[in-house]
User: Which sequence fits this backbone?
C-alpha cells in the first residue's frame, strides 16, 4: 500500500507546482499513516502493548500533516491531483485526491478528534484483553475516514464508505463474546448495507448520466451536475438526458446512504445499539466522525439536489431531530441518552442542508464533533468509575444506568466542570461553540420557512422546540449524574468508594476537547455566528447579512427559554428528588420505548424479510431442486431402460449365439467319447445311412 | 434242397448277431466272440460262393487261410485284453475311453 501510494504519488503530482505537490503528498501521508500503523500492528505487534503507541504516533503525525495541508488549502484555490486508476471500455476510473475547503476541514477534524481519543484509550482500555486489537481497529477506522474525505471520485468514495462501515462494525462488536454486542454490530452492519445499496445506485445512475466518477467534474463550480436541468419530464445534462425519475432515484439512493450512515429516520435504530462498543469508540466513531460522513456526503453532492429534494431533507432532518430528542428525555442509560442526542444533532445538520444552510450545517458538524466527543469521553469516565464501585463491592447493577448515580460532582470535580462545558455547548448557550452553529441553523430555517410559505413554518418551530427539549434532557442527565445524593450509596450505605478523575491520560484529552468546545476557536465574537471563520468560508458569497429580524429574536428566545428549561429540570430532578414525571402516560411510554420503532421493525420488517427468505428457500428447495431432481430421475429412468436393453437384447443375442454354438458343440462332442463300441456304432449308422440313401435314389 | 440263399441267410443272421454282440456286450471277451461270429459269417460266405468258382476249391482254401488268421488275431486280441485288464483292472469297453484324446 505504501509503495503503491508512493508510485501513485509520483504520477499524481507531475502536473502540479512544487508547493501544491508538497501539499498533496502531505495529504496522502496523512491518510496513509494510520494504515501503516494498522499494518504494523497487524503484522508485527499482534499481541503487543506497543500497538497503542504506534497508532497514537501515527495519528499524531497525521494531525501535523493535516494541519499543514489545512493551512495550505483553506480559502485557497482547490488542489486536485489525479491519475488514471484503471480503464473499463472507454470509461476511465480516476484515482486522486481533491483538496478543497470541505475536505481540508474534514481532514483536519478527524485527527484532531482522533488524537485525544487515542490518548484517552491508552488509559481507558489498559485492562482489556483486546488492547492491541482495539488500536488495530482504531487505526483502520482512521485510515478509512481520512481516505473518505479526501478522495476525488465516487468509486473510491464508495470503497472508503464501505471500509468506514466495516471498521465501525468491528469496533461495535469489539467485545464479541457478549450476545448484545454481536446483535448490535450485526444490526449496524445490515442497516448500513441498506444505505450502501442506495449510494451504489446513485453512483451508477450518475455515471450513466454523465459518464464520469470524478467528483470535481460532477459537482464542481462549473461541473456537469450544476449545468443539468430538469424540464419536460427529462433530466438533461450537457451531453446526455434521461427521464426525470432517475434523478429522484439517485436522490433516494443518496438519502438512504445518508440516513444509514448519519442515523436519520427511518434507519437510525442501529446507533443507540452501537453503544455496545467501548465508550471511546462511541466517542470517536458514533458521535464525532463516522456518523458525520452522511452529512459530509450531502456536502459533497450538494448541487445534485433540487428544491423538492432539499425540502424532503429538511423535513426528515427536522423529524429525526425532534423524535430523537423526545426519546432522549426518558432513557436511563447514560450512553443511550447521548446516542439519541447525537441522532438529534445529526438531524439538525441534515435539516440545515435541507434549508440551504450549507455553511451552518458543516459548522455544526465540526462543533458537534468536539462537544459530543467530549461528552462521550466524560461518560466513559463515569461508567468506568461506576464499574469500579460495582466490582469493588460485588454489586449487581448496570454501571451505565443514571438512576444509580448522583452527587458525583464532589467525587469527580474536573469531570463535572468539563461535562458542564460540553452540556452547555450541546444545549447551545452563548460563549460555547454549539451556540454559534445551532443558532445559525435555527435562524436560517426561519428565513427559509418565510420564503417557502406558511406550511413550512412548522419546521423551524419544531426545531426550536427540539432545542428546548435538548436543554431539558441534557439538564436532566447532568443533574441525575452530578447533583443530589449518590443514590447507590443511599441504597447500599456500606459500599466503599474510591474514585477520582483519573490520571493525565484522561484529563489531557478532556481539557483539549473542552477548549475546542468554547467559542474562541471558532469566532471572535461569542454571539454572532456570522463571524465564525468556518461559516464564512463555506458561503458562496456574502449573502444573508444581519438584515433579518430573526437574527435577533431567535437566539434571545432560544436562550432565555433554554435557561428556564434548565432551571425546571434542575428543580425537578435536583431538589425534589422524590418527584418525577408520571411513568404511565402514553407520551412517556412512547418516548421510553423509543417510539416503538424497533418494536415495529422486528415483527414487521425483520419478519417480512425472514418470511421472504424462507419463501425463496422453499422455492429453491421445491422448484429449483425439484427440477434438478426430476432431471436426475429422468436420467436414472433412461439409464435403467438402456440397462434393460443392454442386458436382454444385446446380451441376449450374444447368449443365443453362444448357446447355439454350445449345443452344436455338445452334440458333436458325443461322437468323440473315446468308447470303441460307440465308434463302431457310429460307423454302422453311417454305412446304414449310405445304403439307405443308395436304395432310395436307385 | 439247400440253396445259396439259405447259406447267405444264415451268414447274414450270424453277421448280425456278431455285430449286435460287438456293439452291446460289456465284456471285451464277449466282443471278441462277436468278432469271431462275424468272421465266421464271412467264411461261410466264402465257402458258399466257392461252389461257383472257376478254379476248384479256391473258396475253401481261402476260408482255411481266414480261419488261421482269425485264430492268430484272436490270440493277439486276447493278449491285448489281458494287458488292458492289467492296466485298467477292467475289461468293460465302456470304461476304457482313452481313445478320445
Assistant:
Amino acid at each position: 500500500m505504501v509503495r503503491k501510494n508512493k508510485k501513485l504519488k509520483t504520477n499524481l503530482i507531475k502536473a502540479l507546482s512544487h508547493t501544491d505537490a508538497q501539499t498533496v503528498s502531505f495529504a496522502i501521508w496523512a491518510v496513509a499513516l494510520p494504515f501503516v500503523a494498522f499494518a504494523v500492528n497487524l503484522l508485527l505487534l499482534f499481541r503487543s502493548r506497543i500497538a497503542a503507541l504506534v497508532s497514537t504516533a501515527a495519528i499524531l503525525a497525521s494531525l501535523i500533516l493535516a494541519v499543514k495541508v489545512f493551512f495550505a488549502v483553506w480559502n485557497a484555490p482547490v488542489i486536485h491531483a489525479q491519475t488514471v486508476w484503471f480503464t473499463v471500455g472507454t470509461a476511465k476510473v480516476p484515482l486522486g485526491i481533491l483538496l478543497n475547503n470541505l475536505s481540508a476541514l474534514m481532514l483536519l477534524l478527524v485527527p484532531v478528534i482522533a488524537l485525544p481519543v487515542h490518548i484517552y484509550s491508552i488509559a481507558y482500555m489498559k485492562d482489556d484483553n483486546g488492547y492491541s486489537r482495539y488500536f488495530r481497529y482504531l487505526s483502520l477506522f482512521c485510515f478509512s475516514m481520512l481516505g473518505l474525505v479526501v478522495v476525488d471520485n465516487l468509486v473510491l468514495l464508495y470503497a472508503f464508505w464501505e471500509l468506514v462501515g466495516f471498521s465501525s462494525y468491528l469496533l461495535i462488536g469489539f467485545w464479541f463474546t457478549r450476545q448484545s454486542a454481536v446483535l448490535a454490530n450485526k444490526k449496524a452492519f445490515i442497516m448500513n448495507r441498506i444505505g450502501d445499496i442506495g449510494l451504489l445506485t446513485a453512483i451508477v445512475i450518475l455515471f450513466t448520466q454523465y459518464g464520469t466518477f470524478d467528483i470535481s467534474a460532477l459537482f464542481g463550480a462549473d461541473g456537469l451536475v450544476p449545468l443539468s436541468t430538469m424540464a419536460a419530464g427529462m433530466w438533461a445534462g450537457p451531453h446526455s438526458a434521461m427521464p426525470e425519475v432517475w434523478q429522484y432515484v439517485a436522490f433516494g439512493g443518496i438519502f438512504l446512504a445518508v440516513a444509514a450512515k448519519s442515523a436519520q429516520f427511518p434507519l437510525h435504530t442501529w446507533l443507540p445499539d452501537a453503544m455496545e462498543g467501548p465508550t471511546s469508540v462511541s466517542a470517536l466513531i458514533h458521535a464525532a466522525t463516522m456518523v458525520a460522513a452522511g452529512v459530509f456526503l450531502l456536502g459533497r453532492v450538494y448541487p445534485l439536489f433540487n428544491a423538492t429534494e432539499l425540502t424532503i431533507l429538511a423535513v426528515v432532518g427536522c423529524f429525526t431531530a425532534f423524535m430523537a430528542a423526545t426519546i432522549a428525555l426518558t432513557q436511563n442509560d447514560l450512553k443511550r441518552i447521548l446516542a439519541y442526542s447525537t441522532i438529534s444533532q445529526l438531524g439538525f445538520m441534515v435539516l440545515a442542508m435541507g434549508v440551504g444552510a450549507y455553511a451552518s450545517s458543516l459548522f455544526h458538524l465540526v462543533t458537534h464533533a468536539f462537544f459530543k466527543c467530549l461528552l462521550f469521553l466524560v461518560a466513559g469516565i463515569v461508567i468506568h468509575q461506576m464499574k469500579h464501585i460495582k466490582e469493588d463491592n460485588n454489586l449487581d447493577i448496570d454501571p451505565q444506568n443514571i438512576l444509580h448515580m448522583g452527587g458525583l460532582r464532589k467525587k469527580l470535580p474536573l469531570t463535572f466542570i468539563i461535562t458542564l462545558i460540553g452540556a452547555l455547548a450541546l444545549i447551545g448557550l452563548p460563549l460555547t461553540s454549539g451556540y454559534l452553529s445551532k443558532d445559525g441553523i435555527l435562524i436560517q430555517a426561519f428565513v427559509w420557512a418565510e420564503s417557502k410559505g406558511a406550511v413550512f413554518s412548522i419546521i423551524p418551530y419544531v426545531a426550536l422546540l427540539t432545542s428546548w427539549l435538548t436543554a431539558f434532557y441534557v439538564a436532566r442527565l447532568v443533574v441525575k449524574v452530578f447533583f443530589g445524593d449518590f443514590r447507590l450509596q443511599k441504597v447500599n450505605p456500606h459500599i466503599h468508594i474510591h474514585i477520582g478523575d483519573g490520571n493525565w491520560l484522561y484529563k489531557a484529552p478532556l481539557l483539549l476537547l473542552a477548549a475546542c468546545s468554547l467559542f474562541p476557536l471558532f469566532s471572535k465574537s461569542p454571539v454572532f455566528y456570522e463571524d465564525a471563520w468556518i461559516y464564512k468560508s463555506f458561503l458562496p458569497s456574502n449573502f444573508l447579512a444581519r438584515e433579518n429580524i430573526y437574527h435577533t429574536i431567535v437566539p434571545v428566545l432560544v436562550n432565555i427559554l433554554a435557561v428556564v428549561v434548565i432551571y425546571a429540570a434542575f428543580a425537578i430532578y435536583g431538589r425534589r428528588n422524590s418527584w418525577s414525571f408520571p411513568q404511565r402516560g402514553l407520551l412517556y411510554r412512547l418516548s421510553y420505548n423509543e417510539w416503538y420503532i424497533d418494536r415495529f421493525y422486528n415483527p414487521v420488517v425483520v419478519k417480512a424479510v425472514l418470511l421472504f427468505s424462507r419463501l425463496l428457500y422453499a422455492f429453491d428447495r421445491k422448484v429449483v431442486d425439484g427440477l434438478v431432481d426430476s432431471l436426475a430421475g429422468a436420467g436414472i429412468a433412461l439409464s435403467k431402460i438402456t440397462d434393460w436393453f443392454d442386458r436382454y437384447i444385446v446380451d441376449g443375442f450374444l447368449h443365443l449365439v453362444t448357446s447355439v454354438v454350445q449345443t452344436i458343440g455338445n452334440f458333436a462332442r458325443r461322437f468323440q467319447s473315446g468308447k470303441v463300441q460307440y465308434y463302431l456304432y457310429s460307423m454302422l449308422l453311417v454305412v446304414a445311412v449310405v445304403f439307405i440313401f443308395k436304395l432310395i435314389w436307385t | 434242397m439247400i440253396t445259396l440263399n439259405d447259406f447267405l441267410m444264415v451268414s447274414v443272421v450270424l453277421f448280425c448277431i456278431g455285430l449286435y454282440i460287438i456293439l452291446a456286450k460289456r465284456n471285451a471277451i464277449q466282443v471278441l466272440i462277436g468278432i469271431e461270429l462275424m468272421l465266421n459269417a464271412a467264411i461261410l460266405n466264402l465257402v458258399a460262393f466257392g461252389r461257383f468258382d472257376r478254379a476248384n476249391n479256391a473258396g475253401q482254401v481261402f476260408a482255411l487261410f481266414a480261419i488261421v488268421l482269425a485264430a492268430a488275431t484272436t490270440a493277439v486280441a486276447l493278449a491285448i485284453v489281458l494287458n488292458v485288464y492289467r492296466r485298467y483292472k477292467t475289461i468293460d469297453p465302456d470304461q476304457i475311453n482313452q481313445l478320445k484324446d
